[in-house]
Amino acid sequence: MKFRCFLVGWLALVFSMPAASLKMDSLTAGPTTYSYVTILGANTTDLYFTHAQGIANVKLKYVSPELQKRFNYDPKAAAEAEKLQNEADLRYQKEEATTFFSRGDKGTEKVNKQPVTSEESIADPVSEGSLLGRPAPLLDADRWLGDKPSMEGKFVLIEFWASWSIPCRKCVADLNSLQKTFKDKLVVVGWTSEADITNVTELKMEFPSAVDSKAKLNAVASVTSIPFALLVDAKGIVRYQGHPGAITEKRLEALITKGDGSRK
Fold it and tell me: Is this structure's pTM higher than 0.70?
């Protein structure tokens, strides 16, 4: 429902733009080329269009001079608009993080009374800002790339990634292996803030992935570099946050074997 509202709002914005639709066999923006393109309109910073793989928008500064001229691209105005948007996004992310950590619930208080270390611990918290030992934040995605997985009663490994990141690409094979090995007890979930994803198939990800264009979860989890992972147990408690390389098959086996209960 949330994605449907987002899509309706996005289309309303596009169709309110003054430029007429324009069909093109292809459109190149930076390193990416789109095929069977129908341009719906533009604003100060972005060009909006449909293409063979769905709906997308790109920065006008990355398209051809001809298209820039057609849609009245003004570099100075675009730079100022991007600056204001980035500032607004940063405020939004900080608000998301503040809301999560200030939210008081009995479940959190109960969790915090538990020991903070054990033989199975992959990492231990040393800051109030750590998610370790806390109920996991909601996976509030704008959209899923494919079907949303069922996570009830399973561990969930959330992998923050970006298609352009070489370290993220190198992690895919290991994540595929973990998903295959623990397929009945674990769900690996890819999580990206890239709004326009066109080369997911090239990564050969054998697990579902979601788009969080506002990077809400990134803010709550204090993600400052990628790849980054959150491991949530079957009860919905965060057991690890950090580089996914620390989550080996042996460590995961120990956690899953000891853990029980169902995900709330």
Answer: no
Q: Spell out the domains of the chain, with CATH numbers in brackets.
A: 2-76 (2.30.30), 118-258 (3.40.30.10)
**DSSP state string for the chain:** -HHHHHHHHHHHHHHTSSSPPEEEEEEEETTEEEEEEEEEEE-SSEEEEEETTEEEEEEGGGS-HHHHHHTT--HHHHHHHHHHHHHHHHHHHHHHHHHHHH---HHHHHHHTS-S--TT-S----STT--TTSBPPP---SEEESSPPP-TTSEEEEEE--TT-HHHHHHHHHHHHHHHHTTTTEEEEEEE--S----HHHHT--S-EEE-TT-HHHHHTT--SSSEEEEE-TTSBEEEEE-GGG--HHHHHHHHHH--S---
Tens-place pLDDT, residues 224-255: 899 999 999 999 999 998 999 889 999 899 88
Is residue 259 scored above 70 in pLDDT?
A: no
